[in-house]
Amino acid sequence: MLRKINKIIKTDVTGTNVTGCEGSIVVEAAIVVPIIILSLIAIIYVSFLTFQKAYLQLLADRTAEKGAHFWKNRYSNVETGRDYKICPEGMELYWWLWDTSNEEKRNKLESYLESRAGKYSIIKAVDRKASVSLLNYVIGKKVRVVIEESYIIPGADLLKMFGIKNVYKIKAVSESMISDPDELIRNVDLLIDIERELEEKYPELRDTRDKIQSTLESIHDSVKKLLE
Q1: Domain boundaries of the chain, sorted by first residue
Q2: What is the model's pTM?
Q3: Mean pLDDT, the chain, as a whole number?
């Protein structure tokens, strides 16, 4: 009996009978190898998405900056910012108050976005939304750029079975302030001239202005005393 056991042990050690060992290796490989392959694919795909996110954000920032300059003069080149054409009617004065070309400017900037969005993309988006809008504030204006792209994740059907969304969305948002000191000074002078003409025509407006001014001064003095 001991001779038979010793013979079995020697056979396993020498490797002449490794059927059980080979079977375990095959089972382990069937589990580990797919996991490794899927992990490598996931790492590569995440790298592509990271690059796409950085590219879209850079594109949104540049478009917002170019759009802020372009909004001052719709005859300038969107990409270079150069004023290559002079307005036939002369300079577009007082556009800050009455801008009749907002829609034209927005369409040109959105066309610029569409032409650049997929130019350097590594992976293809299944859906893309790009929009440009003008934000009006009391003391300023901003150009807002929004780009949103959707991508199908590999193994989408398998993810659906587990209730996981198979679409990944990337969104880039950027804003840039429009700076036009000349236009601001021009508009302030216009408002002052309008005010003076109205006061000359309607003297009661001057009295109303004086009352409002005195009220504001009294409020300012009261707040100053409280802070002291």
Answers
A1: 22-179, 185-227
A2: 0.65
A3: 76
